[in-house]
């Protein structure tokens, strides 16, 4: 089995339900509180490990109770955490999330230690890239660190996967080192600077990135499934119909499904069909890491 390295974010989500959002200067009583491990990097690493992959993670948490708990949680999920550093004098990445009765949310993200995942820190951990086969990145650490990690990974002959989330424009020097890009429609629009509202627009936007050096793209389309595109081909996959209760981490579990099947030497179409099943289970459950399924929960 190939080894997967995830370089990315680790957060604690602090979620409070409220009847209605507090206005400026107002105090409201919460209707329940939950502390849920998150961060796209950690979510994807956990999802892959629960699907049976051999996963190592590079990232940072702060020297506080959240940081220690998050690192321990990743270890308990069988992830190699020797590349996760506890940084002194900075807080762990925190998302403060308020959800009202109509399911509207407001979110404050403190990047904290995630922003200290610098180029130099990646260089210090280069042996983790050397011993991996597949390197997976997102955009919740500094962009120059993502660019640097992709450059090194390609130089060392690794297969690179980028989930360009949260959505933002990306430079060509990042794009050219990506083997597999997995954006949703919004992310595709921002990166390609083109509209991607229907299948023909998605195809044109994805083609423009393939011309810039990305080998393959999977565009996830929520309940409409996904499209897999590359030089001279385009294939649509339908989602599985389920009663969705919370789509948080749908994309994270989808990417984990693809990466873990590729790590097992499976072809891309099988990997996408598997990932679609994994994501369909995730959306039937609440929360981020709490919703990520184990391999024995997927009907093969
Ligand atoms: P992201 O969370 O990154 O925006 P998407 O919402 O596009 O990602 O979802 C990723 C994948 O999860 C989709 O390609 C699909 O397979 C699955 N998925 C998402 N929403 C649903 C849903 N309502 N029902 C079934 N599957 C879903």
Automatic annotation (TrEMBL):
It is an enzyme of class 2 (transferase). Residues 1-294 form the Carbohydrate kinase PfkB domain. One of its GO terms (cellular component) is cytosol. Keywords: ATP-binding, Carbohydrate metabolism, Cytoplasm, Kinase, Lactose metabolism, Magnesium, Metal-binding, Nucleotide-binding, Potassium, Transferase. The active site is at 252 (proton acceptor). Substrate binds at residues 11-13, 39-43, 140, 252. CDD domains: ribokinase. Requires a divalent cation, most likely magnesium in vivo, as an electrophilic catalyst to aid phosphoryl group transfer. It is the chelate of the metal and the nucleotide that is the actual substrate. The keyword Protein biosynthesis does not apply. ATP binds at residues 184, 220-225, 251-252. It catalyses: D-tagatofuranose 6-phosphate + ATP = D-tagatofuranose 1,6-bisphosphate + ADP + H(+); D-ribose + ATP = D-ribose 5-phosphate + ADP + H(+). GO terms for molecular function: ATP binding; metal ion binding; ribokinase activity; tagatose-6-phosphate kinase activity. It is found in: Cytoplasm. One of its GO terms (biological process) is lactose metabolic process. Activated by a monovalent cation that binds near, but not in, the active site. The most likely occupant of the site in vivo is potassium. Ion binding induces a conformational change that may alter substrate affinity. SUPFAM superfamilies: Ribokinase-like. The keyword Magnesium applies. Pathway: Carbohydrate metabolism; D-tagatose 6-phosphate degradation; D-glyceraldehyde 3-phosphate and glycerone phosphate from D-tagatose 6-phosphate: step 1/2; Carbohydrate metabolism; D-ribose degradation; D-ribose 5-phosphate from beta-D-ribopyranose: step 2/2. Its cofactor is Mg(2+). K(+) binds at residues 246, 248, 282, 285, 287, 291. Belongs to the carbohydrate kinase PfkB family. LacC subfamily. Belongs to the carbohydrate kinase PfkB family. Ribokinase subfamily. Catalyzes the phosphorylation of ribose at O-5 in a reaction requiring ATP and magnesium. The resulting D-ribose-5-phosphate can then be used either for sythesis of nucleotides, histidine, and tryptophan, or as a component of the pentose phosphate pathway. HAMAP family: Ribokinase. Homodimer. This is Ribokinase. It comes from Peptoclostridium litorale DSM 5388.
């Amino acid at each position: 089995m190939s080894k997967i390295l995830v370089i990315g974010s680790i957060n604690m989500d602090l979620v409070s339900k409220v009847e209605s959002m507090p206005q400026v200067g107002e105090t409201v009583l919460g209707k329940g509180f939950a502390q849920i491990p998150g961060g796209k990097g950690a979510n994807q690493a956990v999802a892959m490990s629960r699907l049976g992959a051999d996963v190592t993670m590079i990232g940072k948490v702060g020297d506080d109770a959240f940081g220690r708990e998050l690192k321990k949680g990743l270890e308990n999920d069988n992830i190699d955490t020797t590349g996760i550093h506890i940084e002194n004098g900075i807080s762990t990445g925190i998302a403060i999330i308020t959800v009202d009765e109509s399911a509207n949310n407001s979110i404050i993200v403190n990047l904290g230690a995630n922003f200290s995942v610098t180029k130099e820190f990646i260089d210090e951990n280069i042996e983790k890239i050397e011993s991996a086969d597949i390197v997976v990145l997102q955009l919740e650490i500094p962009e120059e660190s993502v660019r640097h990690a992709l450059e090194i990974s390609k130089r060392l002959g690794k297969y690179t996967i980028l989930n360009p989330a949260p959505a933002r424009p990306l430079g060509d020097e990042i794009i050219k080192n990506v083997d597999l890009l997995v954006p949703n429609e919004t992310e595709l629009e921002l990166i390609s600077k083109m509209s991607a509202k229907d299948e023909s627009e998605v195809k044109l936007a994805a083609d423009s990135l393939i011309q810039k050096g990305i080998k393959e793209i999977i565009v996830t389309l929520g309940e409409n499934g996904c499209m897999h595109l590359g030089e001279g081909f385009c294939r649509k996959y339908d989602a599985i119909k389920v009663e969705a209760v919370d789509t948080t981490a749908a994309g994270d579990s989808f990417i984990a499904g693809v990466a873990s099947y590729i790590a097992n030497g499976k072809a891309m179409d099988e990997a996408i069909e598997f990932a679609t099943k994994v994501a369909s289970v995730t959306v039937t459950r609440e929360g981020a890491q709490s919703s990520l399924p184990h391999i024995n929960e997927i009907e093969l």
